Amino acid sequence: xxxxxxxxxxxxxxxxxxxxxxxxxxxxxxxxxxxxxxxxxxxxxxxxxxxxxxxxxxxxxxxxxxxxxxxxxxxxxxxxxxxxxxxxxxxxxxxxxxxxxxxxxxxxxxxxxxxxxxxxxxxxxxxxxxxxxxxxxxxxxxxxxxxxxxxxxxxxxxxxxxxxxxxxxxxxxxxxxxxxxxxxxxxxxxxxxxxxxxxxxxxxxxxxxxxxxxxxxxx
Length: 219
Ligand SMILES: Cc1cc2nc3c(=O)[nH]c(=O)nc-3n(C[C@H](O)[C@H](O)[C@H](O)COP(=O)(O)OP(=O)(O)OC[C@H]3O[C@@H](n4cnc5c(N)ncnc54)[C@H](O)[C@@H]3O)c2cc1C
Prior knowledge:
Radius of gyration: 21 Å
CATH topology: Four Helix Bundle (Hemerythrin (Met), subunit A)
Transmembrane segments: 198-216
Protein name: Sulfhydryl oxidase
InterPro entries: ERV/ALR_sulphydryl_oxid_sf, ERV/ALR_sulphydryl_oxidase, Sulfhydryl_oxidase
EC number: 1.8.3.2
Shape: globular
Helix content: 55-70%
Bound molecules: flavin-adenine dinucleotide
Number of strands: 2
Organism: Adineta steineri
Number of helices: 9
Strand content: under 5%
Structural class: mainly alpha
């Protein structure tokens, strides 16, 4: 490990800029420890440097706010849990463990007042949704972050939730949302039932493809 780090240090000294792919190629060519190939479903990018882990974090965080609201409706939360706790925990996690400095600074500053702003579990879902759209807007035209196959447009789009959108601009992007409808949409989109439905749908699709392939190869 020591000699690996020493060589890595020597290698990066020769560069003023280094793309994620160049960095990964160097590591793959020298490291005897091979990192497992991660496969993403919802967060699969058009290449390995796009989407992936940060995307899964967002999905996890939104699912956490939804789960907390559902538990609160079922009176299944301990009485000392406050509606802002989930956002505060997310902020703590990002502040301590997310390795992108710019992301940390921005997200922590944006949510610094969450304890005073969030008074209901309903609001914590919308709070994270609004914050994520602020990040999307900021990153929309940044070359390195963006996957051209997954443009960072305001979420949800008209196709995803027509009722959620009250106003669109000349590009068809949402500029004003109906927050009651958006709340209902987010609750459905990030509920466990929905992710299980997506998995079932994927299995049915996979099964159909396998059957079609068998039928074709038997012809
Ligand atoms: C807390 C945090 C802060 C970040 N800050 C930065 C930063 O400052 N600079 C930077 O370069 N990168 C930042 N990132 C990474 C960046 O936001 C994206 O995660 C990354 O570029 C991958 O983008 P993506 O296209 O997969 O979609 P993501 O933005 O990761 O979204 C993941 C999924 O969430 C859904 N979604 C999108 N918008 C919303 C919304 N408003 N509400 C609910 N669901 C939504 C969509 O289904 C989408 O596929 C941050 C990530 C996190 C978790």
